[in-house]
Amino acid sequence: MTSDSAIPASESVVVVAAEPAFEPAAAAVARRLGLPLLAVDAWRGGAGGPVVLWWDAEGLALRGSAASRARPVRPVRPLAARAGRDPLLRAVGRWEEVLDATAGLGGDAATLAAAGRQVTLIERNPVLAAVLADALGRWRADGVGAAGRMRLVSGDARDHLAAAAADVVFLDPMYPEPPGGGRARTRERAPARRRAPARKAEGPHLLRLLAGDDDDQDELLAVARRAARHRVVVKRPRHAPPLAGRTPNGVLPGRTVRYDLYAPEEVDP
Ligand SMILES: C[S@@+](CC[C@H](N)C(=O)[O-])C[C@H]1O[C@@H](n2cnc3c(N)ncnc32)[C@H](O)[C@@H]1O
User: Fold this and answer.
1) What pLDDT was estimated at residue 187?
2) Which one of 86, 143, 152, 257 has the minimum C-beta count within 10 Å?
3) Is the domain of 139 the same as that of 172?
4) Same structural domain for residues 151 and 240?
5) Nearest CA owner, ligand 1 atom 24
6) What pLDDT shows up at residue 254?
């Protein structure tokens, strides 16, 4: 289960259509997820909770309260240019098939798919899974090649991994919020003058409100090691302790994050 810091989706998330033309589609999503539908004028007037499932001309997105003035946050289209020499690709190595067990908004999965990997994305938060599913559908309709290599599974990766295998299992669980409560996911901070404008942190903030601290990540690592054929890759903030206190078999350090590599664990026949 996620920690108490996660807001229960069915209680606090509302669905808002940006314009009347999108109301039928937004109402259908609200029905499917069991969430209330809120009129956009009411949202502008301050109604709704801290997370909104927003439907506009570009489809589903996450959004905060109107007072936050931040733009909608949505998955970023996979672009070949993003593949580049991303350290994530070095961490995954030459293996073809990757299971991203903590899909979130799909940024890492998009990087992998843009680089030609077949990626299964697993996301257990139904609101995030809905946003991902909508983005994937739109990318495929637009002929984005990488989207054809991305398959979404909505559910808990621990259940899925118990009956699945992949060359590489990739994990990027939420990093526990620092004491005192930082707004964004903990990463090494850039010097103040180079820090991104506050609204860029809206994505991690909304993700944390929805997903909480992922406090079952030790168990996830154990299941992942049994499901991986070649390796498990865990993304961590650069100075964070290793997941489950397990010393990795290899480490790829980056500027702000590092990738811990684990060998698969033998499964008794
Ligand atoms: C830090 S985010 C991942 C961000 C992602 N790598 C990206 O590029 O957008 C962690 C996500 O993993 C999901 N998650 C954590 N444990 C999970 C599990 N056991 N099964 C499925 N999803 C899980 C959370 O709901 C959250 O959305």
Assistant:
1) 41
2) 143
3) yes
4) yes
5) 211
6) 83
Determine which residue's CA is closest to atom 8 belonging to ligand 1: 107
**CA 140–ligand 1 middle distance (angstroms):** 22
Based on the fold, state whether residues 129 and 27 are members of the same structural domain: no
Same domain as 105, residue 59 = no
Residue 98 to residues 119, 214, 222, 265, Cα–Cα distance (Å) = 5, 21, 17, 17
Is the CB of residue 106 less than 8 Å from the CB of residue 132?
A: yes
Is 182 among the domain residues? no
Say yes or no: 41 and 127 in one domain: no
Final residue before a domain boundary, out of 68, 97, 115: 68
To test the pocket of ligand 1, the residue of 3, 7, 102 to mutate (highest count of ligand atoms within 8 Å of its CB) is 102
Per-residue pLDDT of the chain (269 residues; tens, 9 = 90+): 444 445 554 458 999 999 999 999 999 999 999 999 999 999 999 999 899 999 999 999 999 999 988 999 999 999 875 555 789 999 999 999 999 999 999 999 999 999 999 999 999 999 999 999 999 999 999 999 999 999 999 999 999 999 999 999 999 999 876 655 544 444 444 444 455 444 458 899 999 999 988 789 999 999 999 999 999 999 999 999 999 999 999 999 988 899 999 999 976 65
Q: 166-171 and 257-262: which strand pairing?
A: unpaired
Give the chain's domain count.
2
- The partner residues of 171 in beta bridges, in order of sequence, read 234
- List CB contacts of 226: < 8 A, sequence separation 6 or more: 161, 264, 265, 267
Question: Same structural domain for residues 97 and 23?
Answer: no
Residues 130 and 100 grouped into a single domain? yes
SS3 content of the chain, % helix, strand, coil (to 5): 40, 20, 40
